[in-house]
Design brief:
Layout lengths: L8 H14 L5 H25 L4 H7 L3 H9 L2 H4 L4 H12 L7 H18 L1 H4 L4 H9 L4 H25 L6 H14 L10 H8 L12 H12 L7 H10 L1 H17 L5 H10 L2 H4 L3 H17 L4 H20 L8 H4 L5 H8 L10 H16 L7 H13 L1 H13 L4 H12 L7 H19 L11 H9 L3 H17 L4 H14 L3 H18 L4 H13 L5
Helix pairs in contact: 1-2, 1-4, 2-6, 6-7, 10-12, 12-14, 13-15, 14-15, 15-18, 16-19, 21-22, 22-25, 24-25, 24-28, 25-26, 26-28, 27-28, 28-29, 28-30, 30-31
């Protein structure tokens, strides 16, 4: 049976006449008459809402040409909007009249008018008005203005949340397009109220809402406003709501990632613990457990690295992020985990599996063998004739660089363990000099082997002087190629940290290197990474830990 979509004209005209007669209820006579009709008016408004919610804005205006005048007058009557659910019903009626895709100037003007009315209804400043009539009315109900509207907002939010959840979980597809339009409108009119704490349950419900429509049902203004408020810590949301926000709105995810990078660069951070804390607090590593989010964040990081010419600060941030992502991924319940290929779909999967193994997951005696396995796979990929483009080479390098923990361990293992130096040195040479144009990487290997052999001759000496290290120091200072210089500085710094006789020379030697070469940032970041890893593993030699702390306290980072 078809639903009757008309409100009897005399009834509509009756209430319009009443609204005109009452005005803003500024006289005692109009206040009494309004109170006498509140129950019947609320029933009428609800009946009107039940009809227009299925019509669409343009049809509703055609069928009820004076509806704007009626609703507009009622919205300014404090006795009407203060009664039971009348304010909520007025809001729903206004939402039904709002055009999510205005086609002409008339609809744009109507939207603007509706927004102003809703802002009037929901603005907390208006609720705390000291107008005599409003205060008198609320006092008669036994409430202060602030208390009354606080309860009203909570009740409205509960009502909206219940309706949205029921419409989603009941699987009702009746008037699906209208329902999507209503949800879009509700989300839009939440924008001015995003930071109200009482609105949080509604924000969460909207963000987790997925109707039957293939198109996004929430307004972009709403998604942007929620993201902005979350990033600036003006609101607190459950992780599931934040993840849903970033999954359904790419610009918000991009902004969150860039905001994190800006935040890390704008703060004077003293340790990687602080960096890790800020990154984890952003929820991006946890959100990256979803492959789509991970790949987008990864692309943004990749672009940031290229735009900054591969600075060690950006690379360190990426490496810490990757470690936190792996922690979050490992903490996921097994049934919710995505396969590794979903995160790295275009990479050599055995290499991905090798790199993704955290060092603490393996016995230290197995590290050298594992590093050789990684190095052999990388070398085979790089020397593959199919990897001819610089893009392919960069992708391999970037994958290895993201898991920089293994690179730092590689440099340590060269000095501390029985390791096949050729494979491990090649891995480090590839990291510092991925391109082999004009035999650059080959030359880097020659330089690295010379430094390594010299340092190994001195490694067991308990009584070292700076003169003993002059050859290695001069090699660092005399190398023109930046990649060779940084690799040599890396090996020399590890020698000073882990050799029996290097501790007493560390401060003087490192100061000398960083003051006379462009390796200051590289050495500083190496020290912070080493301190971070040792602190988290709990396996560091006490003397090495003490030296690291002293170096980091005295180290002056030259920008």
């Amino acid at each position: 049976m078809a639903q009757d979509t008309t409100v009897p004209k005399p009834n509509f005209e009756y209430w319009l006449d009443k609204a005109i007669e009452w005005g803003q209820a500024t006289t005692l006579e109009s206040q009494k008459d309004t109170c006498l009709h509140l129950l019947q008016l609320q029933e009428f408004l609800y009946q009107l809402y039940e009809i227009i919610k299925h019509l669409g804005s343009s049809v509703a205006f055609q069928q009820f040409p004076l509806i704007g005048q009626l609703l507009g007058r009622l919205c300014w009557n404090p006795f009407v909007i203060g009664y039971d659910e009348s304010q909520k019903t007025l809001m729903w009626c206004l939402c039904c009249l709002y055009s999510s895709e205005p086609q002409n100037a008339v609809e744009l003007k109507a939207n603007s008018w509706i927004r102003s009315l809703l802002c009037h209804l929901l603005c907390s400043a208006k609720w705390e008005s000291n107008e005599t009539e409003t205060s008198t009315f609320l006092s008669a109900l036994g409430y202060t203005s602030a208390d009354y509207y606080c309860h009203l907002v909570k009740n409205m939010v509960i009502s909206l949340v219940t309706e949205l959840r029921e419409s989603q979980f009941n699987g009702l597809n009746i008037q699906e397009s209208t329902s999507a339009s209503r949800v879009n409108t509700v989300s839009f009119f939440c924008v001015p109220l995003i930071t109200l704490s009482d609105l949080t349950p509604l924000l969460e419900t909207l963000l987790l809402y997925h109707g039957g429509s293939s198109k996004e049902v929430l307004s972009s203004e709403f998604l942007e406003a929620v993201n902005e408020a979350f990033l600036k810590k003006k609101i607190s949301l459950p992780e599931s709501a934040v993840f849903s926000l970033w999954l359904r709105h790419l610009p918000s995810l991009e902004k969150a990632t860039l905001y994190l990078l800006d935040q890390l660069f704008s703060i004077d951070l003293k340790s990687l613990e602080e960096v890790a804390c800020i990154i984890k607090d952003s929820l991006l590593p946890q959100a990256a457990s979803h492959p789509a989010i991970f790949r987008i964040i990864n692309e943004i990081f990749k672009n940031a690295l290229m735009e900054t010419d591969g600075t060690s600060e950006v690379m360190t941030i990426i490496q810490v992020f990757t470690q936190l992502f792996l922690q979050a991924h490992q903490n996921e319940y097994k049934q919710h985990k995505f396969p590794l290929k979903a995160y790295f779909p275009y990479h050599h999967q055995p290499l991905v599996r090798g790199l993704i193994r955290r060092p603490f997951e393996l016995p230290t005696t197995y590290w050298s063998q594992h590093l050789k396995h990684i190095s052999d796979m990388v070398k085979a990929l790089v020397e593959d004739t199919n990897i001819s483009s610089l893009i392919g080479l960069f992708e391999i390098w970037y994958l290895v660089a993201c898991f920089g923990e293994w690179l730092d361990i590689a440099a340590e293992q060269l000095l501390k363990a029985a390791v096949e130096p050729g494979a491990v040195l090649w891995l480090l040479a590839f990291y510092y000099c991925p391109k082999n144009e004009n035999q650059q990487r080959t030359q880097t290997m020659v330089e690295a082997e010379a430094v390594y052999n010299h340092l190994m001759m001195l490694f067991s000496c308990a009584d070292l002087s700076l003169k003993d290290l002059e050859a290695a120091v001069h090699r660092v200072m005399g190398i023109e190629q930046c990649c060779n210089q940084h690799l040599t500085a890396h090996l020399l710094t590890n020698f000073l940290l882990f050799s029996p006789g290097g501790h007493k020379l560390a401060q003087e030697c490192i100061n000398h290197i960083t003051e006379t070469t462009d390796t200051s940032k590289e050495v500083y970041n190496l020290l912070t990474r080493t301190a971070y890893r040792i602190n988290h593993s709990g396996k560091g030699n006490q003397r090495t830990v003490k030296l690291l702390n002293e170096l980091l306290q005295k180290f002056t980072l030259k920008v």
